[in-house]
Design a protein that fits this description.
By secondary structure, the protein is mainly α. The chain has helices spanning about 5-30, 35-40, 45-55, 60-75, 75-80, 85-95, 95-105, 110-120, 125-155, 160-210, 210-220, 240-250, 255-260, 270-300, 310-315, 320-325, 330-360, 365-385, 395-415, 425-445, 455-470, 475-489. Helices cover about 75% and strands about 0% of the residues. Mean pLDDT is about 80; it is low at about 35-40 and about 475-489.
């Protein structure tokens, strides 16, 4: 067991726990448990908003799976990954001020709160939305659990099961005690660690490889395709790479774990600052991480499990104590995504299903205890799912991304910007998006050479428009009410 690597990582975890315990006092003293626990009292400033969005989006697939695929595919995957630069920009530009104002007007604590109020309190919109979040985010959370466990396994040499247990307990404790405020503040710390850690590791890899030109010569000698835009086997077509921009760029607007951040900021100034900071930092981190994966190939050839590239290369090219600090970056990314997803699924169960349809008049104490209990139970269930992990967890995470985007992108975006959209259009869009995504994923993946998410997103858009127009007048009061709200913003 390499204590020089483990001790800096342990110190980082202690710092995260300290923030969680400090944040718990806000949960205990807040007059509005739901708003504080799930949105941090809507008090995020620009820097914290940018960092919590980046840290939530920059997950195990970015820091563990992403470099693993880049190691296999070469510079083509680096090019593909840069479509993520637009993430924070599109989320805050498309949702931004309008979404935050509407969320406050509806007193929405979750994305489903917003959808419920926008679509005439439709029970089916709520239930299908909650079911979509629970199903797809379980896949996403399992990917994070696997990533965290593999990182700890690589660092300590203990079994995968033991590493999984340590990671699960660490995350559950500070999420349960601190809620969203703990998540947002720890995300800020984690975002800074990610930024600096990726820079240090990239420099270390370049030096160990004898410079960029020497590394490129090594890649060219092994397989010339590794330095082309088309991947090691030539299977990254222009259409496929371009369509990834839908999945990890524009489509991120439909991810509930990201959109909820657009509800939580303090004011317009904070949003504008976050837009600039977020775009720069996402681009910097994603470029560095994926270049590290490619450049590691000549230095450590023959790594069979791609998800182990990141910890192995860090321990290879850096002094042990520096590797421990740098490896806090992927641990930060994983933990920050897990905590956000846990709270999101928990809020779907408690706020969107239980309080809406089972016990609307539940007492403050009962809601508080139930929220914490549900978060804990969800963590245990995801732990069980992660016991049998895939070789490359990025695919599990991207599957979840695609499903959520196909379900939510148009009910959210057109719900904000098209007053004639109604609950029938939203329902048709969600059902069409989810069903077509699952069918394409299983039977016709990469249809027309595009990523699987593209056609379901197009079909869900068509369904939203057609069903909203066909049922024009059925929800006329809802539409006119929304227009009045728009005029008042």
């Amino acid at each position: 067991m390499n204590w020089a690597v483990i001790i800096p990582l342990f110190i980082f975890l202690v710092l995260i726990f300290a923030i969680g315990f400090w944040s718990s006092k806000f949960v205990r003293s807040s007059d509005s448990f739901l708003s504080e626990y799930f949105l941090g009292g809507r008090e995020l400033g620009g820097f914290i908003l940018a960092m919590t969005m980046i840290a939530t989006y920059g997950s195990a697939s970015s820091f563990i799976g992403g470099p693993g695929v880049a190691y296999t595919e070469g510079l083509g995957w680096v090019l593909l990954s840069m479509s993520q630069v637009a993430t924070g920009y599109f989320v805050l530009m498309i949702l931004g001020k309008k979404f935050a104002i509407m969320a406050r007007r509806y007193d929405a604590v979750t994305l489903i709160d917003f959808l419920k109020s926008r679509y005439n309190n439709s029970k089916w919109v709520v239930l299908i939305s909650a079911l979509s979040i629970i199903i797809f985010l379980f896949s996403a959370m399992a990917a994070q659990w696997v990533g965290g466990a593999r990182l700890i396994e690589s660092l300590t040499g203990i079994s995968y099961l033991g590493a999984l247990f340590i990671f699960a307990v660490s995350v559950l404790v500070y999420v349960i005690i601190g809620g969203f405020r703990a998540v947002a503040l720890t995300d800020s710390v984690q975002g800074v660690v990610m930024f600096l850690g990726t820079l240090i590791l990239l420099i270390g890899v370049i030096i160990a490889g004898g410079g960029i030109s020497n590394i490129m010569d090594g890649l060219r000698a092994e397989n010339p395709n590794l330095i082309t835009p088309y991947g090691s086997e030539g299977n990254l077509s222009a259409a496929y790479v371009s369509s990834f921009w839908i999945l990890v760029g524009v489509g991120v607007v439909g991810l509930p774990q990201v959109t909820v951040r657009a509800m939580a900021y303090k004011n317009s100034k904070a949003m504008h600052r976050a837009l600039i900071i977020g775009t720069i930092v996402v681009g910097f981190i994603m470029l560095n991480m994926h270049l590290i994966g490619v450049f590691a190939r000549p230095i450590l050839p023959g790594i069979e499990v791609g998800d182990r590239v990141m910890p192995l290369i860090a321990m290879e090219v850096l002094p042990a104590w520096v590797a421990g600090i740098v490896l806090a970056a992927p641990m930060a990314a994983i933990m920050s995504t897990v905590d956000s997803l846990l709270l999101l699924v928990s809020s779907s169960v408690v706020k969107d299903v239980y309080l809406n349809y089972i016990e609307p008049k539940a007492s403050y104490e009962k809601v508080k205890k139930l929220s914490i209990a549900v978060t804990a139970v969800l963590g245990v269930l995801v732990f069980l799912m992660a016991l049998n992990p895939p070789n490359l967890l990025i695919w599990l995470n991207l599957f979840a991304f695609g499903g959520l985007e196909a379900a939510f992108i148009w009910p959210v975006v057109l719900g904000l910007y098209w007053s004639r959209g109604n609950k029938y259009g939203a329902l048709a869009s969600m059902v069409t998006g989810i069903v077509s995504y699952v069918l394409f994923h299983n039977f016709i993946p990469e249809a027309l050479g595009l990523h699987t998410v593209v056609l379901p997103v197009v079909l869900s858009f068509v369904a939203y428009i057609i069903f909203s127009l066909l049922t024009k007048g059925v929800n006329e009061a809802e539409g006119s009410n929304f227009e009045n709200i728009e005029r008042s913003i």
